[in-house]
Amino acid sequence: MLRTVSAVALLALSTHAAAGYDTHPRFAEFAKEVNEEYQIPEAEVRQWLAQAEKMQSVLDAIARPAEKTHTWATYQDIFLTEKRIAGGHEFMEKYADILAEAEAKYGVPKEIITAIIGVETFYGTRQGGYRVLDSLSTLAFDYPERPIFWRELKALFALAEAEQVDPATVKGSYAGAMGFGQFIPTSYLAYAVDGDGDGKRDLWNNPTDAIHSVANYFSKHGWKTGEPVTQRVTVTGENWKELANKSRSPDWTVSQLTQAGVGLSTPVSPEKPATLVHLEGKQGDEYWLGEYNFYVITRYNHSRLYAMAVYQLSESFK
Fold first, then answer.
1. DSSP 3-state assignment of 27?
2. Hey, how many other C-beta atoms are within 10 angstroms of the C-beta on 284?
3. Interatomic CA distance for residues 228 and 208, integer angstroms
4. pTM, two decimal places
5. Model pLDDT for residues 177-223, shown as the tens digit of each residue
6. For strand 262-263 and strand 273-281, is the pairing parallel, antiparallel, or unpaired?
7. What phi, psi does 233 have (nearest 5°)?
8. Domains of the chain (ranges plus CATH)?
9. DSSP letter, residue 21
C-alpha cells in the first residue's frame, strides 16, 4: 500500500509543536483500530497526530449547532436569496454538460445537484477554513459525546491513503466536512467518484468529481427518478398533529395522512408512502407532504429545514 507521508512531510512533523494527539491516553486504542480497519501502521498515525492541534473554537462551535437556533423563516433568509439563486444559474450554465451527464447517469435532477452544492458551499466558494486534521482530532479525542468523530478521523487517514493527499493540508468545516458537497470522510470513501476518469476523486478542486459524487450519493440513497419531492398541503381538525414532524422517513401512506385531515394540492396515489412536515415560515405555519425523495434529501443532512431549502432552491432554477 502506498504511504502518504513523504520525507519532507516527516521533517515538517518533527519540527512541529510537541503537544499533539499522539500523547493522548487513547492514542494506542485509536492507532490499533486504524491499523485493523485500514492497515495503516501505528507509526504513520502517530506522525500525523503529532501535529494535530486541539481547537477550542471547534469545541465551541459543536456545542452550539446552528440548527437549534434556526426556523424555516431564517433558513429562507439564508438559502433562498437572490444572490444564491443567481449563483446557481451561473453554476448550471458553466457546468451544463457535466450536470447533464451526471443527471443522465444517476437519475438525479441537475437542479437538485446544484442546490446541494449551493446550500453547502455557495457553489464551491466556501468550503471551510479549518484544517480537518485538527478539527476531527479535537472532536474525536476531546468530544466523547459524539463518537462519530472517532470514526471519521480514522476514515480521514484512510482517505488520505486512497487519494494520496496530505491530511495536514486538507481544509473543511469545523465538523470535518470537505469539498464542494461537504462530504465527511466516511461519505467520501463510500460515495465519492472519479467523474472525469483521471484516476482521482478530488472533491475540493474538481467540479466534475464533485457533481458526479453528489449525484452518486443521492442515487445510492434511493433517489426515485422522475418522482416529486414535496407539495404544499392544508390541514383540518386535530388528528394531523399526531403525525406532523414525527419522522423524517415516509412512515405513513397518503391515505392515512388524508384521513388525519391533510388536504392535497396535487393528487397522489393513496398507497404512496409520505410524511407530514410542519414548518414555521415568514407568513406563519406551512404544511408539506414529504414524499420519498424528500426523505432522501434528509439523508444528506438530517433536517427538514435543510431539505426544504434544497428543494425550494432547486425549484428556483427551473
1. helix
2. 8
3. 26
4. 0.92
5. 999 999 999 999 999 999 999 999 999 999 999 999 999 999 999 99
6. unpaired
7. -130, 170
8. 16-59+128-206 (1.10.8.350), 230-290 (no CATH)
9. G
